[in-house]
Design goal:
This protein is of the alpha/beta class. Helix content is 37%, strand content 22%.
């Protein structure tokens, strides 16, 4: 799936902020050439919020990648009711 992302101009990158999943996601980013892409991040997380995740992901991306400052995040207990917020966020990106 990530291999297909290199063909796109815009990448929507969903990640869960749980250590093992998060580290694996960073590893997959490093394995693929995402140069010159626009990246939008959205995250499901626990009580720690986004923590340093946006900075950490930005650091493993090539410098030519444009990471949006508009990050959608949702607390793990609120994911079932996050649909409206997610759709609003996606609408803002258009």
């Amino acid at each position: 799936m990530i291999g297909e992302m290199v063909l796109k101009k815009t990448i929507y990158f969903l990640f869960a902020l749980f250590l093992t999943v998060y580290l694996a996601a960073c590893g997959k980013i490093e394995e693929n050439d995402l140069s010159d892409k626009q990246v939008y991040l959205f995250c499901s997380h626990g009580t720690g919020g986004l923590a340093r995740s946006v900075q950490d992901i930005s650091e493993v991306l090539p410098e030519s990648v444009k990471v949006s400052e508009n990050v959608f995040d949702v607390y793990e207990d609120d994911t079932a009711s996050a649909k409206e917020g997610l759709l609003n966020w996606l609408g803002e990106l258009q």
